[in-house]
Amino acid sequence: MLEEFDLTQAAEPLLRWYLKNARTLPWREEPTPYRVWISEIMLQQTRVEAVKPYFARFTERLPDAAALAACPEDELLKLWEGLGYYNRVRNLQKAAGQITAQYGGVLPADYDKLLELKGIGHYTAGAIASIAYGIAVPAVDGNVLRVLTRLAEDDTDIAKQSFRNRAEAVLRDEMERLVLPEELVERLRDKNVPGALNQALMELGATVCVPNGAPLCGECPWREICLARRHNTVGELPVKSRAKARKIERRTVLIIRDGDRVAIRKRPARGLLAGLYELPNVAGRLDEGEALAAVKDMGFSPLRIQKLADAKHIFSHIEWHMQGYAVLVEEGLPQDEKLLLVDVEDAGRRYAIPAAFAAYAGYMNIKLGNERFVGKDVSEDAGEEPRRLP
User: Fold this and answer.
1) For position 388, what pLDDT does the model report?
2) What angle do CA 380, 381, 387 make, to 5 degrees?
3) Cis status of the peptide bond prior to 238, with omega within 30 of 0
4) Could you tell me where the DSSP H helices lie in the chain?
5) Contacting residues for 208 by C-beta, under 8 A, at least 6 apart
6) How many whole angstroms separate alpha carbon 263 and alpha carbon 240?
């Protein structure tokens, strides 16, 4: 069990390993409270390599909480386009308003006050407090739970909130009583010990004690003290109960064009992909006749229809299984007041269209999210697992 394992023997080799092996990341180079906050929210559910260009663009355009609080919603969503889980950026803006109104635009150097900000939970509050302010509080995410359960050979279900609470309590106690050699503390001065310890745990889980495939035990600073390695149970840990199966939804996506213009519409303010722009789509799999009828119902006069390839997009609890049609229509305004006809170039530049429609946006040469800058979509990244909070 985690509580029974003596963690005092683990901190020093981990920190020495981290000093030699820590990746160079833009938010680590200048770990201001604001930059740590933005990076940690972006890194939830998203891979590090995918986040880097988003982080650079976002912080250049919105360098502080005041700028974030004042940013128009459409521009904010466009900056986030492709990262997904759009409630994250909406909560960022709400919290920025709190920070601007209550704390003069600077995140509070107080763990409990950080928890009062919209969208900030125990992990994010711990990361900001420790990395930016040197406060001795833990930051426990899925990476940290994985390395700790393997180290202590603890087979408790890590999906349980009670175990996350236990891990936080154990780490907090370890931080409060931690004694390190003076020369190591001196080397960690710029990074600070609590922040370095939290980042070292995350780094170990992201690069060595990995979630997919065999962990690199030979490179691990804990290879001599890890109980799971000693007892050959690494592959059995951590224990995590299975999530509920995703709901399958079948949809038909319609690319409606009248030359250089394409039809889009804004999704409702609540629910999945709230407030974003989408290609018109309907529930179910329509044949060509049904698709043409749907286009006519929107007030268009179809000239030609072309069947497109099927596509799939996975949300956290839902899978969209999509088929698509490209429909050329006569010029004119749609009867459906929710539909907009916009220039194809504007559709890609000005309107936040979620990556769920990336397969069909490609038929119009519209690039979404990181595709506009680095030539590939976030979802195509391979390797490190996205950071998921327990």
Assistant:
1) 53
2) 120
3) yes
4) 8-21, 26-29, 33-43, 48-61, 65-70, 73-80, 87-103, 111-115, 122-127, 133, 142-152, 161-177, 182-187, 193-207, 227-230, 288-297, 344-350, 358-361, 371-374
5) 215, 216, 219, 220
6) 44
Q: So what's the architecture of 247-380 in CATH?
A: Alpha-Beta Complex (3.90)
pLDDT for 101-126, tens place per residue? 999 999 999 999 999 999 999 999 99
Give which of 141, 178, 174, 131 is closest to 37, Cα–Cα. Answer: 131
Q: Give the model confidence (pLDDT) of 10-50 as tens digits.
A: 999 999 999 999 999 999 999 999 999 999 999 998 899 99
- Report pLDDT for 334: 85
Q: What is the pTM of this model?
A: 0.89
DSSP state of 362: G
Q: d(Cα 42, Cα 44) in Å, to the nearest integer?
A: 5
Cβ-based burial of 269 (10 A; exposed 0-12, middle 13-18, buried ≥19)? exposed
CATH 2.40.110.10, domain 2-236, yes or no: no
List active site positions: 40
